[in-house]
Amino acid sequence: MYGFTAATINLRGRASRWLARRHLLVGQLVDSSPDIVAMQEIDFTIGQGNWLTRQVNIRLSGDARRPYRIVQARRSGLRNFFQGVGIMTRLPIIYHDSLDLGYDGRVAIRANVELPAGAAGTRRQSLDIVSVQLHPGAAGAEARTAQALNLVGWINEKRRVPLQVIGGDFNEVPHGIAINFMRQSYRSAYAEARLRDPVATYPTNLVQSRSIESRCFDYVFLSPAVYRVTSASIFADLPGVDDDTLYPSEHVGILVGLEV
Questions:
Q1: How far is it, in rounded angstroms, from Cα 235 to Cα 232?
Q2: Element (H, E) at 203
Q3: Which domain holds residue 199?
Q4: pLDDT at 248 (0 to 100)
Q5: Distance in angstroms (rounded) separating the CA atoms of residues 13 and 171
Q6: Under DSSP, is residue 51 helix (H, G, I), strand (E, B) or coil?
Q7: Which residues of the chain are under the pLDDT cut of 70?
Q8: How many structural domains compose the chain?
């Protein structure tokens, strides 16, 4: 049996006071130190994903190149080319690829990572990690459902491995159509550990608007082959010491402990 931790967090790009909140995000990633982090809304114009990985590495080891490595995928189309998703991981990456989900250039990225010898009862086993962000907005339910269908088909038809962890901002509440579709083949890790999904993962006090309703948009889904969820919590949820409107992101993250 092998235990590890996986997380998902929407970075909010460089919007909403990025220069002020970036070290808050780094510090809370260092404190939780997940083995795998699925990230959404990465801004490529400022090298956000690479900067974040280097900073976390330096704080943990003094070496910008370890223990984490990052892989990223840009959204398609000129309008959104400098935005995307990524995966930051301590585990060795065997390969990675991505899928264009359409609808304003949304994209998913998959990293196939190597597990230690003896994990899952075998000499050598790998695990698929996916980071994704689905189409936003109240009118986007049909688009999100189509994207979820394409995502599940892609993961299970091309280079399929039994162990799968999907983290992301699905822009969909727990009873939404796309989430109900995901539940047909996958388990929500947080709901399995806590008997329900989070009440809300968006927004934090970083976004101060009375017109925004608090909702759960973020999930970590597991394939049936993942043996057990050992823990589940919210992370990246602490404000700045001297500013209760400064948070790591407009989303909180989800952190889960798993065994395979």
A1: 10
A2: none
A3: 3-259
A4: 98
A5: 16
A6: helix
A7: 118, 120-123, 210
A8: 1
Helix ranges restricted to H, the chain: 18-32, 48-61, 141-157, 177-183, 189-194
Read off the CATH number of the domain in which 172 is found: 3.60.10.10
Q: What pLDDT score does 122 carry?
A: 61
Segment 173-213, tens digit of pLDDT: 999 999 999 999 999 999 999 999 999 999 999 987 767 89
Strand order across the beta sheet in which 93-102 lies: 93-102, 106-114, 126-133, 164-169, 218-222, 187-188
b/e code 107-138 from CB counts within 10 Å (16+ = b): bbbbbbbebeeebbeeeebbbbbbbbbbbbee
pTM of the model: 0.96
Which residues have CB under 8 Å from 197's CB, separation 6+? 174, 188, 190, 191, 216, 219
- Reduce the DSSP state of residue 191 to 3 states and report it: helix
Residue 224, judged by CB atoms within 10 A of its CB (0-12, 13-18, 19+), counts as: exposed
Are 143 and 123 in contact by the 8 Å Cβ rule? The answer is no
Residue 259 to residue 254: CA distance in whole angstroms? 17
